[in-house]
């Protein structure tokens, strides 16, 4: 059993762990990413044990110095992992004993890996979610900059993937920026939920040594502490919240990618994806494929897969800690890494793509102004439902005569409704159509600039907050 000595639970066992179970049970390849958080939690806990006289000041200082040395080994990629070690908690404690001897064996009193791991995960997320928030802000910045510079580009807007009404390219781009802003604000809620400390809950019953959890929370920069030890050690709602949030960001990025894939096709040619974010075909020399966007779309879907699979892990668990929860770290790290990568690629793709202004303009058609015919009639006091019906008849008459609606003569229009007058000719103007949508949120130039200004102000405040954190 000598090789089992480093296990934190080995005392009651008389034989070795099965090698296949040992491999399955090992989470060190994943949770080693939390080495700094594990050390941070242990240092704070050592100070709390000193405060209740379970450690002397000398022992606490020795433990903290040893943990600092271990962190340096991890930082410098010098830490040596031994065969059979299970997780980050085990290896750090084993190494601590090698460095400082017996005081290391006192550190874990009243603490369990059950409350230790959930503390580490919360600390890790608190330390790293700002990275994703910054990536979101960078993408929003790129969109806002392009929208400002290309505000006069006009393109078809779509519903059901059918041409609907003319809009500004900037208005289209900003529709995605607002989704991403919402994602940033939802992330703030997640960060707030993370600000509750689990440490001091033990295995499930609590801490028997009257550790001052409120003081411990201050040491670890938590604002609150959990209130029920059984709930605490089995709680992974914060991971589920993160995975769902990441899934929503993935969906928003996927929808943007889908639009741009369509817009980059020869059938549309509204945009050209830069070569640096494209790949070619091994068979067809002419191909330039928007693989960056396709990968964003595909990985965006896989994020929801992580969320769904983890929810199924949680669904049927009995109360408190169960080993099923070891899947939490794989879901957390994998989702974090994938989301960071597609945010970076989305930003690069959107920043470098070329808008084909003439193609966007030439894809407009006068049938897209059919709603404007109805609005023309409404302004002449025709009830909207009646005006809508009349506009539909205009479209049908143009189709019957195989002409565009602007080619119908005033006489032909008046045969459909006497409300048509010579001023109807002003309707056949795309800029006029766009500029009528002056209300907040519309595609008129002033309204789009208002969106840009609001997002710019929000970004400035957000980036200042991130810099100060």
TrEMBL record:
It comes from Rhynchophorus ferrugineus. Residues 11-305 form the Fumarate lyase N-terminal domain. This is Argininosuccinate lyase. NCBIfam families: argH. It holds the Pfam family ASL_C2. GO terms for molecular function: argininosuccinate lyase activity. Gene3D superfamilies: Fumarase/aspartase (C-terminal domain), Fumarase/aspartase (Central domain), Fumarase/aspartase (N-terminal domain). It comes from the Eukaryota. One of its GO terms (cellular component) is cytosol. CDD domains: Argininosuccinate_lyase. Belongs to the lyase 1 family. Argininosuccinate lyase subfamily. GO terms for biological process: L-arginine biosynthetic process via ornithine. Residues 368-435 form the Argininosuccinate lyase C-terminal domain.
